[in-house]
Structure prediction request, 585 residues.
Amino acid sequence: MMRGPDLHLRADGAVAMLCWAALAGVGGALVTIAFHAGIHGIQWLFAGHSGAITRVTRDLPWWLRLLAPAVGGLCAGWLLVAARRVSRDAHSDYMEAVAIGDGKMSVRQGLLRSLSSLCTVATGGSIGREGAMVHLAALCGSVIGRLLRSGTAHLRLLVACGAAAGVSAAYGAPIAGAVFVGEIILGSMSFQNFGPLLVAAAVSNLVMRLSGHYEALYAMPGLEAVPPGLLLPSLALGVLAGVGAPQFLRCIHGVKSLFGRTGLPLPLRLALGGLLLGGVLVGMPQMAGNGYSVVVSLLHQPQAWQAVLWILLCKVLATSLTAGSGAVGGVFTPTLFVGAALGSLFAQGLGEVWPALSGHGAVLTLVGMGSFLAAATSAPFMAILMIFEMTLSYQMVLPLVLACVAAYFVSRGLAQAVMYQVTLHHEDNQALRQRLRHARLDSLMRPAETVIRTDAPVRRAQEMFLDYPVKYLYVVDAEGAWQGVIAQQDLTRMMLAETDVQSKVCGEVLRLDFVKPLYPDLSLDEAQAQFSAFQGERLPVVSRDRPARLLGVVYKSDLLERYSQLKRALDGEADFVLPPRRERP
Prediction:
């Protein structure tokens, strides 16, 4: 009897995964909206009104500008201490949960860390509020996967979908959100992974639009086409960003090291960082928060280079104090700020030495943002799409491509400083796979111990068989040239046949072609093919000289261990790939 179409959706099927990814997208948008509401709520508590963090900070009296970040840091530190005391059987960081974990994230730990970030951001901390939003969105994906009792691969992918939804909601950039997770966290852009990420990011963006919370962060509707003469300067700006971004990250790590040396408890360390930041905010209230409003002013209101340079230095200091003291949050948006200031300075310098290209400050500011982000995150494709989606300006794509690619290669060539440690994890895995795949056999070679000369008496060969549990002895001549092997079974057969073997020398009983030797320049696959046709545990390795020389031996167990290392390196990314659909019986 014919059956109708099978509409059953298994919880771990590929089609069902798209549905759960969409659900993760809804969750990512909702927690982003909730985090925004939390920021406004805390602002009402200490300022009596809410709005852009720079405006709220500017309206405060000087003493409250000084103390608010310190109080926020103290509360944030207490929450972090509480977070450390909860369950340790799940990951506190969504990148670790996806890249090297099983996808299980601690809900209590995640909420406490997000509340800690909320306290820092709402009181003026110079750090990205978007980091906590993305973390909460990833936590939603983890909760959905655990409620569905998904397998490890699907759970990790759902966490990744949540993270993509969070980036999409926070920045209004759905494509860049999916690419961010695929390029940085998963380290894989296969469509079996990328499809659910896109669905989650698109649904999140749709929810933000329907709820009235979407806006293009740096929309540039009147931006003119980029002249060809600006492409070469864009490339130069990319090189400059590639040099500067690692120094920015090193500055943050250096300040973090200084705070660590104080020996203060975490709450006091965060309070100290907040107090020092408050000192900056007393004179520069625009340094509060992630710097969004300042970037907008740089794009639309040209400023003197002295003012831009001062803003740049103060922002680097403010971000280093906040992140270095141990505050939870991202430096993604502050990185855009630093890149914007760098691009603005570059544009003014270019106008002085090349007057014909003056008047393109907005373009070079955006190029600076994208290239600095590409260098800091080691994700140039994501950076290109991020700037494009945040500005809605297609004409920016070509200069961004040149600048972001140049910034990436320069930064990676100069330093190992990266924004996300998971990037180094993926690069280490990639390097390991390359070494394993292209490893030559000589890397597995051991010295040969059971070697005998052709002129040695057979009695000596019999003694060696008693001393070593082997089936073959390797035979060389007086000059060390390879001759063949003596098989234990041959000697046993001669003795049983009452052949006088004691009067013979090894050269008379060796086998020339009984064992096919290996060569040191063979690949692992070529060696494995020979081992497959061989019953023993080891094979000799000889040179390609004429005559050949015995170099050593390779053991099958060593070869299998090397393949096992390669498999383990591949498993980290292979786990993300959804299993093929199975036909129902």
About this structure: The CA atoms of residues 13 and 276 lie 52 Å apart. Residues 14-47 form the longest helix (34 residues). The radius of gyration is 32 Å.
